Fold each of these.
Amino acid sequence: MINTIILNLIQYLSKKSRLFITALGFILVICIGTGRYLTGPEYAFSLFYLLPIILVTWFAGKREGIFIAVASAVSWLLADLMSKHTYSTPVIPYVNETFRLSVFIIIIIMLSTLKRVLEREKTSARKDFLTGIANRQAFIEYAEVEIKRCLRYKSPLTIAYIDCDNFKSINDSLGHQEGDELLVSVADTLQKSLRTTDIVSRLGGDEFALLLPDTKYESSQRVIRKIQKNLLDIMQKNRWPVTFSFGMVTFNRPPVDVDELINKADALMYAAKQNGKNMIRQDVVDKETSTTAR
């Protein structure tokens, strides 16, 4: 129950703007400062100030977190001064708040660093280590989002599965470094040949996948033929004896299951390889048309 509430709260806050989060943190600081003043200096309220500081730092940023930390220190100082509590020397409240502010800022720096590291790890976990494009897990996540969007707006979705024909011969004759350069060139060519809204992924080994949202059957034919030409030009330029087998499916109404989406294109790609390689096998779901093109 508590875990569900916390998760819902995190999802809610993550969708809010920095200004909203900062304002919320500032309101919490005022409430905590008021409570500090009403209860007097005998009760420790320092831990309560960590709540708005952590909240704002995590969801809004380090700069906003420092602002809330300064507001917290000022709030505490004002509560102490207004309580008319006597100190052995008047400078003590200011020294205390300077120390507390330093601790708050250290916490902010540690927290913002932790968030940056986690975000970097999350990003790297979704990228292919060699080519820098999306990996299989990221492709599945993107596909799930696009399927839901296409189902909602009743728009077509095209997926293409690409295999590098005779890639093993490159590794065997020219070495793995040359093979890696070929894969990087393929990934770079695919990215340059598509729109920013399209998704390019290396699913593993020498197999790549493309996701083309809002792309009809006729449009996808032109796109794939262009990609095939660009890839073959790169292979010829580098004297790599590699061609490409394509399996492509346009779904007028995509399936809910991502595996079904991928498996359909994968099956067409293998059909292309079994029928001589270096060809495009295309199909469209919810139409009678099924085309094979060399």
Note: The longest helix spans residues 92-125.
Amino acid sequence: MRTALITGASAGIGKELAIQFAKNNINLILIARRENILQQIAADITSRYAVQVKYYQCDLTDISQIDKLVNQLAQDQVAINYLVNNAGMGTFGAFDTIPWESVSDVIQLNIIAPTYLTKRFLNELASKTEVKILNVASTSAFQPVPNLAVYAATKAYVLFFSEALSVELYKRNISLTTLCPPETETDFLSSSGLSNVSRISKSKLPTATQIAEYGFKKLMENKRLAIYGFKNKMMLFVQRFVPKTMVLKIAANLFK
């Protein structure tokens, strides 16, 4: 059977992506910081679907822990067909008020971790018959976002890195999809502080299940870019023709 490795699998989109893979008879390797939650999710999935689920506790903001994880997977002879770089974090607020430790963690988790994991697993993935990578970015990746300056910048990196790499990997028969969800009804809203944004708190947001179903579908269709929601696709298309100063003003008004 095929196997998918999913980071940030203890909640939200990552957890729901795990369920999508399990529904399609794909074994799972779940990665997150909260081992007790991973244990519960693994037990729940194996009780409902005929798949094998392994889990590994790892703080992906620590490069030394990522190294240990990759080495442990090699020692356990874990082979994967799908790599899902989903783990991410952000902090809402003025840049000068956010502690450096938080800024550093966002950069490490959103940029270094997916880049490093992709680098470490590429040679292994190339030896499989069906190989796909899913990198989770954001609709915030398409423009600078005041009060989410670091988060949006890291997701822009994920977007551009992934799109460039998808062209390189196409020659090796490896598919790479970049999923760009909007604000989603997950714990990320409260942990990042985005739940305090009045526009978001008053909006009907897509659920993690909806995003995961969409992302999984587009991954299996080998789509290079997957932007959730027609409205979001249209907004991102239109902004190409709008002056950057206006885009910044609109973004500032949306996230204040």
Note: The two ends are 47 Å apart (CA to CA).
